[in-house]
Amino acid sequence: MIQRVKNTIQVNSSQNNEDKHYECKICKDEEWIYIKDEYGVYSSAKPCKCREAKLYKRIIENSGITDAFLQKSLDNYKPTTKNTHIALKTAQDYINNYEAIKSTKNNSIAFLGQVGSGKTHLSIAIANELMKQNIGVRYMQYREDLTRIKQVANNEQNYADEINKFKNPIVLLIDDLYKGAIGRGQYGQYLNDADKRAVFEIINYRYFKGMPIIISSECDLDTLLELDEGIGSRILEMCKGHIVEIKGIENNYRLRA
Ligand SMILES: Nc1ncnc2c1ncn2[C@@H]1O[C@H](COP(=O)(O)OP(=O)(O)OP(=O)(O)O)[C@@H](O)[C@H]1O
Ligand SMILES: [Mg+2]
Ligand SMILES: [Zn+2]
């Protein structure tokens, strides 16, 4: 009887191994690569390159972004206007050229302007494409994540820990940059100091290290520069060649007939 049980276990497990389709063939979805020493004994392990992508996938899945958004792709973005055609084309070019531009100074992309025009849709579609290639993309829901950062601003270590989550990822997606951070005073719009400090630290770091960002924001280019020239001009340079400015209510997909 014991032998019979053993046999079935073996058959089942070998079948599983052969049938299983691994997302990552390098580590067989273990996320770690085990290294043998000179005696053939497993002595150490290093994280597989797919690990970061999987980690961020879990973050995006837990970020409150709906399942529907996780299905967003360039294929299910249907441009309805000239502006949205350009937006899609720019997103496609970015994905197609990513390998070639990722180490250049202009390796980032921005979708700016009109509410409801698909800025988040296209940003997430790009993230989904990159993550399919096991490139880690950290999703930052601007308003929520900034609130968390600001809550720990009076503790240096906790603050640094929170900020580092957005400094270090291979690619950072900032969704709705400056949402909830803009005030209106007698001299026009202004950005609150706490947001300015945090965003500058993250953007400046990534700017110097040449690490890509994907940005969606209701602000147009002029507003980004007006709110903070230091941050705005860095974003401009990083996104050069892939800046999509969508203007006009006819681009609001939510209001289409
Ligand atoms: N051209 C399009 N084809 C298909 N779906 C679209 C298109 N544009 C927008 N959508 C859908 O419309 C909804 C609104 O788009 P999205 O949230 O990406 O807009 P947004 O520009 O980020 O708006 P907001 O400024 O309010 O954040 C989403 O469900 C998105 O998938
Ligand atoms: Mg959005
Ligand atoms: Zn792997």
**Beta fraction:** 15-25%
Low-confidence stretches: none
- Largest sheet report: 5 strands, parallel
CATH fold descriptor of the largest domain: Rossmann fold
Mean pLDDT: 90
What separation lies between the terminal Cα atoms?
Answer: 69 Å
User: If strands are numbered along the chain, what order do they take across the biggest sheet?
Assistant: 4-5-8-3-9
What value does the Rg take, in angstroms? 22 Å
**DSSP helix fraction:** 40-55%
| Total of domains | 2
Number of helices: 10
CATH architecture of the largest domain: 3-Layer(aba) Sandwich
What's the CATH H-level superfamily name of the largest domain? Answer: P-loop containing nucleotide triphosphate hydrolases
Bound molecules: adenosine-5'-triphosphate, magnesium ion, zinc ion
Highest-level CATH class of the largest domain:
Alpha Beta
Order of helices and strands: HEEHHHEHEHHEEEHEHHE
Strand pairing plus helix content: what structural class?
alpha/beta
